[in-house]
Amino acid sequence: MGASPAIVMILFVAVGCFMAYPEAIKLKNITRLCHTKSIDTVNRKFPGPRVITREGDRLVVKVVNHVPNNISSHWHGVRQLRSGWADGPSYITQCPIQTGHSYVYNFTITGQRGTLFWHAHISWLRATVYGPLIILPRRNESYPFVKPYKEVPILFGGGPNVSDAYTFNGLPGPLYNCSAKGKARETYLLRLINAALSDELFFSIADHSLTVVEADAVYVKPFETNVLMITPGQTTNVLLRAKSTAPNVTFLMLARPYATGMGTFDNTTVAGILEYETPSSSLKNRPLLKPGLPAINATNFVANFTSKFRSLATAKFPANVPQKVDKKFFFTVGLGTKPCPKNQTCQGPTNTTKFAASMNNISFALPRIALFQSHFFSQYSKGVYTTDFPAFPLIPFNYTGTPPNNTVVNNGTKLVVIPFNTSVDVMLQDTSILGAESHPLHLHGYNFYVVGQGFGNFDPENDPPKFNLVDPVERNTVGVPSGGVWLMHYHFDVHQSWGLGVAWIVLDGEFPNQKLPPLPSDLPKC
């Protein structure tokens, strides 16, 4: 991942741009809110360094692990076309990098431009191991919107369970040096990244409107808003048009959670400061303007906001929505319970149970060796996983009505197998088991089109005619509405650790350029 200019190596070769980024995972003492603790970092930076590249570039990133924890790096949102070995989730595409070992991630940015990010993908280490991945347009190509005067990444952070604070770029608020200075009349591109582990967040800047122009490294039809909602794992680029004259006022930037579940969470607000460059008047003497934010459970606002996202769908940036579907899946998404292990105290609905999460009542169990390797060497797959993940719920019920009495989930490493070049329709249905809530889901290595969403139970007769097959938004992470439907691992990390996820096997195609290359020689061992 990125490093200081002194150790970034950029080579230009005939086939394109080759960029090599050395990355060292090291411990560093960080002081926040008057407390100092040792955290895992990349190149001793928190958040980690920016990786800046262009569409079409090949990235080669060597990760060296100098901390006691195992580690892996996930390139969140990158379309891994024949480079699945570089995706990064531990025990899925690779075994983690053990202490004192290294691994080289090698992949090409194909057909993407905008904002993504990278993060650790094991346990909850991405609470501190994360940073922006900025993909510029190809050289001599421009944005499909006004060229910004300056580009500013803003990373939202938040730890597991109930953290002490949310953060902007690793800082908890205006008591620290957490301000941004702007010039009058200029246009700024804010690259917003929700790197928090488990919290969807509202974001607003006092007395300023924002124009959304990109989501998950895909351009969208521009629209204006005063408030954004961004789920864990999502990125959104917005244009901020500065005022025509520099006001002698300070503007707060605020973010706080959107929450619909019954569990505990960090119900606090993180603040940053936007001030204009003026020849006089210090920050302390200026009036302070504060933006309004929706109620913490403003589901209707969220539904209205997310419905505004549309692909550009132009000749240069088309929306290639499959008009014919080869396979259909219907996955229920929600919570459940597991028996509490003997001699342990569990914080579940009862003293004898603990919380779990599942899709189609299957709680995903991580294997002890990487699924990708196991599949590649098919003789080793027996006993590691099975390929019988149910395409539909085994026991249908009123998903958003009164929940069933039996909430116990089944454990398993069950996978879905689909042939190469298959068009897939996936319906994700939230359930009311242990309370309906919003579920941010992320699909590794691919994008998808969001052709429909809504509340209540999916109606297979009346809902499909309402699907948007013309200009639906293309994303890699989406929020399944609370008590609703979305048409794929969970990006609330607490629920991911509870087993909410499913792995897909996409088979090789017929031709050499449709097959997975052999595994890298330095692929970590479990």
TrEMBL record:
Biological process per Gene Ontology, one example term: lignin catabolic process
E.C. code: 1.10.3.2
Pfam family, one: Cu-oxidase_3
Major subcellular site: secreted
Residue ranges of every copy of the Plastocyanin-like domain listed in the record: 26-139, 160-277, 399-508
Enzyme class, spelled out: oxidoreductase
Note describing how the cofactor binds: Binds 4 Cu cations per monomer.
Cofactor: Cu cation
Cellular location(s): Secreted, Extracellular space, Apoplast
Keywords from the named record: Apoplast, Copper, Glycoprotein, Lignin degradation, Metal-binding, Oxidoreductase, Repeat, Secreted, Signal
Recorded GO MF terms: copper ion binding; hydroquinone:oxygen oxidoreductase activity
Signal peptide span: 1-20
Described purpose of this protein according to its UniProt entry: Lignin degradation and detoxification of lignin-derived products.
Recorded family membership: Belongs to the multicopper oxidase family.
Protein name per its UniProtKB record: Laccase
Organism: Gossypium tomentosum
